[in-house]
Amino acid sequence: MGLKEEFEEYAAKAKTLPENTSNENMLILYGLYKQATVGNVTTSRPGMLNMKDRAKWDAWKANEGKSSEAAMADYITKVKQLLEEASMS
Questions:
Q1: Over the stretch 33-77, which tens digit does the pLDDT of each residue have?
Q2: Top-level CATH class of 3-88?
Q3: Over the Cα atoms of the chain, what is R_g?
């Protein structure tokens, strides 16, 4: 299985993460996913009052410069970690 196929598999598995997964971890996944699928941030940072979109933008921006392949690999690793933690609790 290639990296892209594995990434798509884990993107589907990420949707099965428990609802109590922290916002911090969900933002990490969001940022890695966007970097893997879109690349570097191309939009301006949302305004102060738009806290949700601003947090998502910041999470994506934190991965700026990372290659698509590296972002995919990091995403897969993070989803595996979160699934493992969920199965232990």
A1: 999 999 999 999 999 999 999 999 999 999 999 999 999 999 999
A2: mainly alpha
A3: 13
**Annotated domain spans of the chain:** 3-88
Nearest partner of 28 among 51, 36, 38, judged by Cα: 36
Amino acid letter, residue 42? T
- CA torsion sign, 43 to 63 to 53 to 84? positive
Q: Are 75 and 33 in contact (CB under 8 A)?
A: yes
Q: What is the pTM of this model?
A: 0.94
Cβ neighbours for 53, distance < 8 A, ≥ 6 positions apart: 46
Taking the alpha carbons at both ends of the chain, their separation in whole angstroms is 30
Query: Which residue do the tokens 């598995």 mark?
Result: 13
Closest Cα partner for 65 from 25, 35, 42? 35
